[in-house]
Automatic annotation (TrEMBL):
Highest taxon of source: Eukaryota
Organism per entry: Ilyodon furcidens (goldbreast splitfin)
Designated name of the protein: ERAP1-like C-terminal domain-containing protein
InterPro entries per record: ERAP1-like_C_dom, Peptidase_M1_aminopeptidases
Similarity comment: Belongs to the peptidase M1 family.
């Protein structure tokens, strides 16, 4: 449990403050703030799941994630890009993964379609074979 969680539970910080704090995320380009926010968002997701306010919460999260997710997109796996160390920095790759996880977890339809396409390609490519 984070220090912020403890302050909220003790009543020192109103519960809406963390959601207001993530309002700056669409402008954020670094991995670590997104990672910290996603950890808090997943905790809130568990708390609000199956409540009347869940739809408002998930729509808010998707709104915060949308622009950066669309900007970063999915990894490119075209010819000659496998194993290319210079393709993207570690932090950029981690940010991309974090945004994909948030977008898909909170119901972004385009993210779901892309994930299904990647899985289908992986299955049909025979790279999933246990015996080679």
């Amino acid at each position: 449990m984070s220090f912020l969680d403890l302050l909220i539970r003790a009543g020192y910080i109103p519960q809406g403050i963390p959601l207001q704090l993530i309002g700056y995320l669409p402008e954020e380009t670094s991995f670590l703030p997104w990672h910290a926010a996603s950890r808090a968002l997943y905790q809130l997701d568990k708390l609000l799941d199956r409540t009347d306010d869940y739809r408002l919460f998930s729509d808010y999260v998707l709104k915060q994630v949308a622009s950066r997710y669309h900007q970063m997109g999915w990894p490119t796996n075209g010819p000659g890009t496998e194993g290319n160390i210079l393709q993207a920095s570690y932090q950029t790759e981690e940010l991309q993964r974090e945004l994909i996880m948030l977008a898909c977890s909170f119901g972004n339809k385009q993210c779901h379609r892309q994930a299904v396409a990647y899985i289908s390609d992986w299955i049909s490519s025979n790279k999933n074979s246990l015996y080679r």
